[in-house]
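Action item from last meeting closed. Structure (213 res):
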């Protein structure tokens, strides 16, 4: 079957099947019609977080979004909001990472080499966050705001490292921190990994309101 993709540069037709993802469709388009098409991707299965985009106005991972259920109408694909656009659908995520607190959330695992983690990795990451930026793009706050991913990372850091509690609460107490959050929870609904940053922000808000206890 054929589907119409609407990019910032125009409309294009692409052949799809029932299992074709948005990322697959862009790969096909670049191989056939738009050889200079720019977008970010890596793993193709929702682990790396690099292929986030606005799909019909909603932020999502292109590699996890099937084309067929959307293809009755043209499928509009745009770069994630709040990030610097490089070209077409590709964005530079620098401002997303610049907003993050100094947590070191990609860190050495406490598991010894004698008892490796099931996946065999000596590293562990902050919860299930894949740093895709979708929560930030989904967030409706227009005022200066560090963003849901940054505050969620701060809450997890103080939870796992008590010595970092004051630093993380200082981070959350800034004008760009929890007080800027409007409690819409769009971040939690959009997160492809179920990290629930909105809940994390509420944890920080309650702790600050209780006098940092």
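Sequence:
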């Amino acid at each position: 079957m054929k589907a119409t993709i609407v990019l910032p540069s125009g409309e294009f037709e692409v052949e799809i099947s029932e299992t074709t993802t948005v990322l697959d469709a862009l790969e096909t388009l670049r191989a056939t019609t738009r050889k200079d098409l720019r977008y970010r991707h890596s793993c193709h299965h929702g682990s790396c977080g690099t292929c986030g985009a606005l799909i019909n106005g909603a932020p999502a991972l292109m590699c996890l979004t099937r084309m067929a259920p959307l293809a009755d109408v043209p499928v509009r694909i745009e770069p994630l909001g709040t990030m610097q656009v490089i070209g077409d659908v590709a964005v530079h995520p620098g401002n997303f990472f610049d907003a993050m607190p100094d947590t070191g959330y990609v860190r050495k695992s406490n598991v010894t080499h004698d008892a490796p983690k099931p996946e065999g990795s000596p590293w562990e990451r902050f919860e299930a966050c894949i740093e895709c930026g979708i929560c930030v793009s989904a967030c409706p706050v227009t005022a200066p705001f560090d963003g849901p991913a940054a505050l969620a990372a701060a809450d997890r850091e103080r939870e796992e490292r008590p010595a970092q509690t004051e630093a993380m609460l200082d981070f959350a107490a800034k004008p760009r921190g929890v007080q800027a959050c409007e409690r819409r929870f769009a971040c939690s609904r959009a997160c492809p990994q179920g990290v629930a940053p909105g809940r994390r922000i509420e944890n920080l808000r309650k702790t600050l309101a209780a006098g940092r206890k």
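Note appended to the action item: The longest strand covers residues 2-7.
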